[in-house]
Amino acid sequence: MNDLFKALADPTRRAILDELKKGDKNAGEIKDCFNITGASISHHMSILHNAGLVLRERQGQQIIYSLNTTVFQQLIEWIYNIKGENNENQ
Amino acid sequence: MNDLFKALADPTRRAILDELKKGDKNAGEIKDCFNITGASISHHMSILHNAGLVLRERQGQQIIYSLNTTVFQQLIEWIYNIKGENNENQ
DNA sequence: TAGATATTTAGATTATTTTCTAATTATCTA
DNA sequence: TAGATAATTAGAAAATAATCTAAATATCTA
């Protein structure tokens, strides 16, 4: 859970998730959306992957990243818990 | 929005929110729940307040903090947006 | 008003995170 | 297999964030 919050705390990583929302992208395509090096993107992707926010799949020379939305359920549960409400509609 | 994510990224701050969930607390009572100085707690409270997560009210010598859950709606909307779903039931 | 208590602010230190360059690994293709 | 391309890893530098001590501010009460 801490990994998830930490992963979402960085604005670049949230922007990466926004990009992936539009569709799957390989590491190079993600890099092209931002003004930072491939190494830094790779680091961010590793944090996102570690938090369960993205899925990775090699396709030849490239690594295709995709959004994994299932992990957001945990976050929603955390929110409803702190709000002291249940979460029956989800 | 960035302030909100940053505020939630620290485990001590999330623990503070958990404490406030049980009921309002003054700064000293919050401090007693953790093994850090009052100055550090004060710093965390300022970040939480800045993010809209807590409300502050002076009562004599003490400052009473309380959870402000309304701001979580934004977070829920962010999640539903990134999931590409709407949020009609909320 | 003086002293006590509660909390915050200032400024420094330590720890963590982000970012970089250079080197490495993996895969493809001529 | 050699060279090219894609991405990651390693290690260092720079930027942020967490924490501390000491000092300041606000309020209460004798």
Structural class of chain A: alpha+beta
Using DSSP, what is the number of strands of chain A? 3
Whole-number radius of gyration of chain A? 14 Å
SSE order of chain A in H/E notation?
HHEHHEEH
**Kindly, what is the distance between the CA atoms of the first and last residues of chain A, rounded to a whole number of angstroms?**
19 Å
Mind telling me the CATH superfamily name of chain A? Winged helix-like DNA-binding domain superfamily/Winged helix DNA-binding domain
**Can you summarize the main beta sheet of chain A?**
3 strands, antiparallel
Shape type of chain A: elongated
CATH fold-level name of chain A: Arc Repressor Mutant, subunit A
**How helical, in percent, are the residues of chain A?**
55-70%
Uncertain regions spanning at least 5 consecutive residues of chain A: none
Number of H- or I-type helical stretches of chain A = 5
CATH architecture label name of chain A: Orthogonal Bundle
Write down the oligomeric state. homodimer
Number of domains of chain A: 1
Describe the structure.
2 copies of one chain form a homodimer. With 90 residues, chain A is an alpha+beta fold. The first copy, chain A, contains 5 helices and 3 strands, in the order H-H-E-H-H-E-E-H. In chain A, a hairpin with a 2-residue loop joins strand 2 and strand 3 (62-67). In chain A, helix 1 (2-9) packs antiparallel against helix 4. In chain A, 20% of the residues are buried. The A-B interface holds A 2, 5-6, 8-9, 11, 14, 17-18, 21, 67, 69, 72, 75-76, 79, 82-84, 89-90 and B 2, 5-6, 8-9, 11, 14, 17-18, 21, 67, 69, 72, 75-76, 79, 82-84, 89-90. Chain B binds a DNA duplex (30 and 30 nucleotides) through helix 3 and helix 4.
